[in-house]
Design brief:
The complex is a heterodimer of chains A (about 475) and B (about 750). Chain A contains five helices and 27 strands. Chain A is mostly beta strands and about 475 residues long. A four-stranded antiparallel sheet of chain A has the order 1-2-3-4, with no helix packed on it. A four-stranded antiparallel sheet of chain A has the order 5-6-7-8, with no helix packed on it. Chain A has a four-stranded antiparallel sheet with strand order 9-10-11-12, with no helix packed on it. In chain A, α2 packs across α5. Chain A is elongated, with a radius of gyration of 24 Å. The relative contact order of chain A is 0.09. The N terminus of chain A is likely disordered. Chain B has about 750 residues and is α+β, with helices and mostly antiparallel strands. Classes of the chains: A mainly beta (about 475), B alpha+beta (about 750). At the A-B interface, β27 of A face β1 and α3 of B. β27 of chain A pairs antiparallel with β1 of chain B.
C-alpha cells in the first residue's frame, strides 16, 4: 500500500504524550541527524546494506530488501524501530555498538507514531479517523417491547461444592437488570439492581467458560465443558429457563464461543486451535477457520452480524466474513495470549485485551489500532523484585453505550470511555478479577473473582 | 445464599456461594498441604517436571513446569494463576485437570502417574480444596540430604538393600523424603534401583546409586563382590600412600593387581610420560645396565629435571587454555600475543612455579596482550571480539575447577549442587573484563571496568553481584573482584581447585581420571576411588601446589609401575587402576618419537626449524575461532582443535586414516633411512640378531622376543647386510600398535 500524506492532520495520535512538540517532530530537523550519527555509514548514499538507504526521506520510506521498515503510526510494527530497540545485543542496530541513546529512540518513536512527517511543513501520514461512538439499531434504540427476565424457572439447588467456583464467565442483558454468572455445572441469574438471585440454569456439561446474552436479551448462550473430556455450547430461553438447543461435540472444554446477532450461528473454539461455526437451526457445521496456531481464547460476532473476530493464546487476532468464513483482516499487535475480545455496539471498534498488558481499540475499517494502551493493569512491583511481573488484562466488555470495562492482574476493574480515556479505576477484593460486565443502563459494573465473589460497583460513569 | 442489602454508591460484595459443603475429605485432622512443601515434591517424584515432560524448555502439550522444580514461584503461577479455571477446579477438586491428567482419567501423553487412592492424589486434592495456597516464606528451606546407609557391600547378587533419604532444613528439622525422592543408578549392569529406593545387585563391580530431592543430589557407593572362593589377596608391597589406598580398594573388590612391570617397559613408559618421547638406545643401555635398586627413582628425578617435562606440561595447558595465534585484529589473539602467552607458560613450568600462583597470575591479569602473557586468558579462552561473561565463566569453571556450571544458566543444575544464583554470581566476576586497542596494531589492553553492572538472574532479572561458587554472600565490591576470585580459587582450602588439578595430573599419567571425564566433576559423577583423589589433592596442596612433587609421588608408586598384563581377577577392571591401561600416545609425542628415532627433523610452517612437535601450537593467518589443529598430521592423530575447552577435544582413539598415514604417509616413509642410523647398526653388528636387537631397542625400547627373532632371522635369510631389509623391518616396527601406544 503506497503511503501518501493526507490532507488533514491527524485528529488524534496513538501517543501517550501528545504535546505540540511531539506532533511536529520531522525527518529533516530531528530524525536525519540521528540517522547520520548512527546509521548512514551502512545505510546511506555510499553503502546500502540490506538495500536500505536512510539518507533521504523518500528512500527511507521505501524500505530495504526486507520491505517497508516504517509504518506510520505504529512504531511497534516498524522494523526500523524494532531493530534499534532489540533486547538481543546480537540483533540490535547499530551492530557491536552501544544502543542509540534513549532520548533519540524516543524521538524516533514519536516521529513514527505521529505519522512520519518529512519537514515541519509536512502533514502527518496518519489517516483521518473518526472513531466516535454512534448509537445504532443494535445498541440504543431497538429496545424489545418486554425485555426478557426469568419467570417461574424450575427450582434448582445450589451445587454442592467444596469452594465456590471461580467466576470464569458472566454477561449482562443489554435490556434488563440481569447478570448471568458461571457456577459449577450451573449458571445463576442475579438482578443487578437488588443483587437478588433470580434463578439457576443447569449446565450438566461441566464448567461454563463463556456466557453471552443474545443481542435482544432473549437467549442465553453458555459454553464450556470438562477439560480434556468434552465441550458444548447450549442455548437457553431467558424467560422460561428452557434449554433450546446444544451444539458441538468437542473433546475438550469449549474456551471461546459466541452467538451471531441473528441467532443463526454459533462459533466455538478451544484447545483444538480451530474455530468451528455451527448452525443453530440444525446443528450442522457451516465452516471452519484453521488459521490459528494456538488455542482459541475468544470469539465475537460483530453486532451488525457481518464480521466474526477470533483470538488465540499466541496473540493472533483475525477478522472473518461471518457468512462465508473468508478472512478479511489480521490484527497483529499482541505478543501474548489474548484473554478477551469484544465489539463496541456500533461495530466500528473491536477491543482486545491480552496477557501482554495491552488493551487495543481496533478500527476495523482498516485494522489500525486506534487506541493502544500498554501496562494498564500492571500491579505495583513488590519490593525487591526485578524483571517482568504478570501484568495481563484478563477481561473486557463494552456497555451498550460504548464504555469498556477491563479487569487485570493488578486486581482492579477499569472503565474506559468511548474515546479510550480512563474514566474510573476501582480496586477489586477477593482475588483475581476474571470476568466483568456492565449493567444495561450503565448503573453499575459487575466483577467476578477467582474466589467466586460477584461484586457490584455503582456510579462508575459520570453523567454528562 | 446470603441476601445483601444494597446501598447505592457502595462497594457491595455479593458472595456467590458462601455455603461450603463439608465433605468427608475436609474431616482430615492433618494440616493443609502446602505447595512448596508438599505439592512440588509430588510433581518431582511423579516425573511431571522432567526434561522430557513438562520440564522441557517450552513445556509439553501447552503446560510448562520448571525443570525439576527450580522455580517454584513460576510453577505456582502456571498451575494456579496462568489460566484460572483450567488446571484446578476449587469447587470440585476431583474435577481438576491436574488430577485427571495425573491419574490418566483423561488423555495424557505421560499416562497414569498415580492412582486415585494414592497418598499423592489425596494430598493434591486436599491442597486444591484448601484453595491451592502458596506457602512461600512459611516453610523451612531444604539445605541438604542425608542417605542411610551411604555405602552398600553385597556379598552376592541375591541380597537387596533399601536406601533411606532424609532432607535437612534450615530450621534444623529433618524429614524422611524417601517416598518423594527420585533414584537412579550410574551403572545398571552392576546395580539397579527402583522408584522407592530399593536396590538390587545385577553384576559384580562397583558403582553408585543416587537420590535426588529438591535441588540436591546425593550418592551412595555400592560394591557387588565376586565370589570369595578361589580368591587370595596377593598382598603386594605398597611403596607409598597411593599404593596403600588403591590396594586397599582392590582388596575390598577382590581384585589382585598385576605384577610390577619390567625395566624395559618402565623406561619407555616413564620417558614417554615425562619427556614426551621414546628413550634413546644410550638411555636404554645405561638404564638396563644400572644395578642400583633405586634406579627407577633416579630416572624419575632425572626426567623431572629436564626441560622436556616443562614443554610437555606447557603443551597440555596451552591446549586447555585454547592458545591459537591469529591475525584477525578484533579478537586479540594476535600471533605475538599467543607467543607471549605460550612462552610465559613455559617459563612458569620450567621454573617450577606453584600451580596455584600460575593460575592466580592469569585470573587477575590486566594490560597488553602482547606484553603481558597471562592476560591472554581473556583473549584465548574465548576467541570472540567481545568477551561474553557467561560463556567465559562456564569455560573458566570447566578448566580450573573441572566443573560444568553452564546448566545453571537456565535452571539449577539437575544433577549437581549448582544453582542459578551460583552461576550468575560467578558470571559477575567477568562482566567488567573489557578490552581497548593498544598502541601497536592488533594490540589489545585488558582492564577491569569496576563500574560494570553484575549479571542478571534469568528468572527474576535481579542483579547477582560477584560471588564464589557455593558462597552465600557476594565478595567485597571494592575494586576488581577478580582478586577475590583468584584468592578463593587458588587457596589450598578450595577442594574443587586442588582436586581438579590432581585428577588431571593423575589422568595424564595413568590414562584415565579418578573422575572421568576430567572436566565433568559433579555429585552424580563421583570419583571411582574417593580417598585416592582426596589424598592426591591433599599432597598437592601440602607440597605448595608443586607439579613435580605430585608427579614424583605418582610415578614412584607401584600402581603407576604395574604391568599392563592382566591376571584372572583384574581382566574386567577398567577403572580401579589394578593394571596399566594401554594409552595411545598424544600426536605430538608420536611425531617427536619418530623424529628422535630417525634423527630426521620435522619442520612446522611458521615456526623456526628444529622445534619439537610438543612445542608447537596452532597458528593461522586469519581468525582464530573454529577448529585449528596446526598441521594435518596433528589433525589425523586427533589433537585437540582448541575449538572448545572440553577435554574430549583430544581424541586418542586409533583410526584407519592414522594407520594409513603411518604406513604410506609422509611421516615414516621418507625417514626410513634414519640418517644412516640403520646402516651404522647393520655395519656394527656381527650377527643379524644383534642388528635386530639394536633396531628393537631404537624403536620400541626393548629387545625382540625369541619368537620375533626366529621369524625375522628367517625373513632376513642371506641378506644379513642388506640395509633395505632392515628398513622394511624398521618400517613395520614404526607401524606396530606397540609403537604408538604407551603400555
Amino acid at each position: 500500500m503506497p503511503l501518501r500524506p493526507f490532507l488533514y492532520s491527524a485528529i488524534f495520535l496513538a501517543l501517550t504524550s501528545s504535546s505540540t512538540r511531539a506532533e511536529t517532530i520531522n525527518y529533516d530537523e530531528h530524525i536525519k541527524p540521528i540517522f547520520r550519527q548512527h546509521c548512514l555509514k551502512c545505510h546511506g548514499d555510499d553503502k546500502q546494506k540490506a538495500d536500505l538507504n536512510l539518507q533521504n526521506y523518500g528512500a527511507a520510506l521505501k524500505g530495504g530488501s526486507g520491505g517497508e521498515t516504517l509504518v506510520a503510526g505504529r512504531s511497534s510494527r516498524s522494523i526500523l524501530f524494532q531493530s534499534i530497540t532489540d533486547p538481543d545485543e546480537d540483533l540490535r542496530m547499530p551492530p557491536n555498538k552501544p544502543p542509540i541513546p534513549e532520548d533519540q529512540i524516543e524521538m524516533i518513536q514519536k516521529w513514527i507514531d505521529s505519522g512520519l512527517r518529512e519537514s515541519s511543513e509536512s502533514l502527518s501520514m496518519l489517516k483521518e479517523r473518526d472513531t466516535s461512538f454512534k448509537p445504532t439499531a443494535t445498541s440504543g434504540n431497538n429496545r424489545p417491547e418486554t425485555p426478557a427476565m426469568p419467570e417461574n424457572w424450575p427450582e434448582l439447588k445450589q451445587p454442592e461444592t467444596e469452594n465456590p467456583l471461580p467466576v470464569l464467565a458472566m454477561d449482562t442483558s443489554a435490556w434488563a437488570p440481569l447478570v448471568a454468572v458461571a457456577d459449577q455445572e450451573q449458571v445463576k441469574l442475579i438482578n443487578t439492581e437488588s443483587g437478588e438471585l433470580l434463578g439457576r440454569l443447569p449446565f450438566p456439561e461441566g464448567v461454563p467458560n463463556v456466557i453471552r446474552f443474545s443481542r435482544d436479551g432473549s437467549v442465553l448462550m453458555v459454553a464450556g465443558g470438562r477439560p480434556v473430556e468434552s465441550g458444548k455450547v447450549v442455548l437457553y430461553d431467558v424467560t422460561s429457563g428452557e434449554r433450546l438447543t446444544a451444539v458441538g461435540d468437542e473433546v475438550d472444554a469449549v474456551l471461546a464461543a459466541d452467538l451471531s446477532p441473528n441467532q443463526k450461528l454459533i462459533a466455538l473454539g478451544g484447545s483444538g486451535k480451530v474455530v468451528k461455526v455451527y448452525s443453530t437451526v440444525d446443528g450442522t457445521l457451516q465452516y471452519k477457520l484453521e488459521k490459528h496456531t494456538d488455542w482459541i481464547t475468544s470469539l465475537a460476532f460483530s453486532p451488525d452480524g457481518k464480521t466474526l473476530a477470533s483470538a488465540d493464546r499466541a496473540g493472533g487476532l483475525h477478522l472473518w466474513n461471518a457468512e462465508s468464513g473468508g478472512i478479511t483482516l489480521s490484527l497483529l499487535e499482541h505478543k501474548q495470549s489474548i484473554r478477551a475480545i469484544d465489539w463496541r455496539p456500533d461495530s466500528k471498534i473491536l477491543a482486545s485485551v491480552a496477557e501482554d498488558g495491552k488493551a487495543i481499540w481496533w478500527d476495523v475499517s482498516d485494522g489500525f489500532p486506534a487506541y493502544n494502551k500498554s501496562d494498564i493493569h500492571t500491579p505495583k512491583r513488590p519490593k525487591g523484585t526485578y524483571g517482568l511481573i504478570p501484568n495481563g488484562v484478563l477481561a473486557a466488555r463494552f456497555s451498550p453505550e460504548g464504555y469498556l470495562a477491563t479487569t487485570g492482574r493488578d486486581m482492579t476493574v477499569q472503565i474506559w470511555n468511548p474515546d479510550g480515556k480512563l474514566e474510573k479505576k476501582i480496586p477489586v477484593e477477593g482475588g483475581l478479577p476474571l470476568s466483568t460486565a456492565m449493567a444495561f443502563d450503565q448503573s453499575c459494573v459487575i466483577t467476578g473473582t477467582v474466589s467466586g465473589e460477584v461484586q457490584f460497583e455503582r456510579d462508575v460513569i459520570s453523567k454528562q | 445464599m446470603k441476601r445483601l442489602s444494597l446501598k447505592s454508591g457502595q462497594l457491595i460484595k455479593a458472595l456467590a456461594a458462601v455455603a461450603i459443603l463439608v465433605s468427608s475429605h475436609s474431616a482430615r485432622a492433618e494440616e493443609t498441604p502446602g505447595f512448596r512443601r508438599d505439592i512440588m515434591p509430588i510433581l518431582f517424584r511423579a516425573g511431571c517436571n522432567t526434561g522430557t515432560c513438562h520440564g522441557a524448555a517450552k513445556g509439553k502439550d501447552g503446560f510448562m513446569l520448571s525443570l525439576f522444580g527450580y522455580d517454584p514461584g513460576g510453577d505456582y503461577y502456571r498451575i494456579v494463576n496462568e489460566m484460572p479455571g483450567r488446571r484446578l477446579n476449587p469447587a470440585v477438586p476431583e474435577q481438576s485437570l491436574l488430577l485427571k491428567k495425573a491419574t490418566g482419567e483423561v488423555p495424557h501423553t505421560g499416562g497414569e502417574l498415580f492412582t486415585r487412592d494414592s497418598e499423592f492424589y489425596s494430598e493434591i486434592r486436599d491442597w486444591i480444596a484448601a484453595g491451592a495456597p502458596d506457602d512461600e516464606s512459611d516453610i523451612p528451606e531444604p539445605v541438604g540430604l542425608e542417605l542411610s546407609p551411604d555405602r552398600f557391600v553385597f556379598e552376592d547378587k541375591t541380597t537387596e538393600g533399601q536406601l533411606k533419604v532424609t532432607a535437612l532444613y534450615d530450621d534444623g528439622s529433618k524429614r524422611d523424603v524417601t517416598s518423594i525422592a527420585r533414584f537412579h543408578s550410574n551403572n545398571t549392569s552392576v546395580i539397579e534401583i527402583d522408584e522407592d529406593g530399593r536396590i538390587s545387585p545385577s553384576g559384580t563391580g562397583d558403582s553408585h546409586v543416587f537420590a535426588r530431592f529438591n535441588r540436591f543430589t546425593i550418592g551412595a557407593e555400592v560394591i557387588v563382590l565376586p565370589p570369595a572362593e578361589n580368591f587370595t589377596w596377593s598382598n603386594p608391597a605398597a611403596d607409598n600412600y597411593i599404593d596403600e589406598i588403591v590396594f586397599d580398594r582392590l582388596e575390598k573388590l577382590r581384585i589382585n593387581p598385576s605384577e610390577l612391570c619390567d625395566d624395559e617397559t618402565f623406561l619407555r613408559r616413564i620417558t614417554l610420560d615425562l619427556a614426551a618421547r621414546t628413550p634413546s638406545p644410550d638411555e636404554y643401555h645405561a638404564f638396563i645396565a644400572d644395578p642400583s635398586p633405586e634406579k627407577r627413582k633416579a630416572k624419575i628425578e632425572e626426567l623431572l629435571g629436564n626441560d622436556s617435562f616443562a614443554d610437555l606440561w606447557t603443551a597440555i595447558w596451552s591446549e586447555q587454555l585454547r592458545i591459537v595465534g591469529g591475525n584477525y585484529a578484533p579478537v586479540g589473539t594476535y600471533i605475538k600475543a599467543a607467543d607471549t602467552y605460550q612462552e610465559w607458560i613455559r617459563e612458569q613450568f620450567r621454573k617450577g612455579r606453584p600451580l596455584n600462583e600460575f593460575v592466580a597470575d592469569m585470573v587477575v591479569a590486566s594490560g597488553s596482550n602482547i606484553q603481558n602473557g597471562p592476560v591472554n586468558l581473556y583473549t584465548m579462552l574465548s576467541h570472540e571480539p567481545k568477551l561474553d561473561p557467561k560463556g567465559f565463566a562456564a569455560d573458566f569453571s570447566q578448566v580450573f575447577l573441572g566443573i560444568q556450571i553452564q546448566c545453571a544458566e537456565c535452571h539449577n543444575h539437575p544433577f549437581d549442587r549448582w544453582t542459578m544464583d551460583d552461576y550468575y554470581g560467578f558470571v559477575s566476576f567477568f562482566t567488567g573484563v573489557t578490552r581497548k586497542p593498544g598502541v601497536e596494531s592488533r594490540e589489545q589492553r585488558i582492564y577491569y571496568d569496576t563500574k560494570a553492572a553484575p549479571a542478571k538472574h534469568l528468572l527474576d532479572m535481579r542483579p547477582v553481584p560477584a560471588k564464589t561458587l557455593g558462597a552465600v554472600e557476594p565478595v567485597s565490591t571494592k575494586g576488581d573482584p577478580r582478586r577475590e576470585l583468584a584468592k578463593w580459587l587458588t587457596s589450598g582450602e578450595n577442594e574443587h581447585f586442588s582436586r581438579n588439578l590432581a585428577n588431571r595430573i593423575w589422568a595424564q599419567l595413568l590414562g584415565k581420571g579418578i573422575v572421568a571425564p576430567v572436566d565433568d566433576m559433579r555429585v552424580s559423577n563421583p570419583p571411582v576411588n574417593g580417598p585416592l583423589l582426596d589424598a592426591l589433592s591433599e599432597h598437592l596442596v601440602a607440597s605448595g601446589f608443586d607439579l613435580r612433587s605430585l608427579v614424583r609421588d605418582i610415578c614412584n608408586s607401584r600402581v603407576y609401575q604395574l604391568s599392563s598384563q592382566p591376571n584372572a581377577t583384574n581382566k574386567q577392571d577398567t577403572r580401579q587402576f589394578s593394571r596399566a591401561y594401554m594409552r595411545r600416545l598424544r600426536p605430538e609425542i608420536i611425531m617427536d618419537s619418530v623424529v628422535a628415532i630417525t634423527g630426521q627433523q620435522r619442520n612446522f610452517s611458521g615456526f623456526p626449524s628444529g622445534i619439537k612437535a610438543i612445542e608447537h601450537y596452532p597458528r593461522t593467518g586469519g581468525a582464530t575461532s573454529g577448529p585449528h589443529f596446526g598441521d594435518t598430521f596433528f589433525e589425523t592423530f586427533g589433537r585437540s582443535s582448541r575449538a572448545t575447552v572440553s577435554s574430549t577435544e583430544l581424541k586418542l582413539e586409533p583410526t584407519l586414516s592414522q594407520a594409513l598415514h603411518m604406513s604410506v604417509g609422509n611421516t615414516v616413509q621418507p625417514r626410513l633411512s634414519a640418517n644412516g642410523r640403520l646402516k651404522k647398526i647393520v655395519e656394527k653388528s656381527e650377527t643379524p640378531i644383534e642388528s635386530l636387537e639394536e633396531l628393537f631397542i631404537l624403536t620400541l625400547s626393548r629387545k625382540p622376543t625369541p619368537y620375533e627373532i626366529e621369524g625375522l632371522v628367517e625373513l632376513i635369510g642371506e641378506e644379513v647386510k642388506n640395509v633395505d631389509v632392515y628398513e622394511d623391518i624398521f618400517w613395520s616396527l614404526l607401524n606396530s600398535t606397540e609403537f604408538s601406544f604407551n603400555q
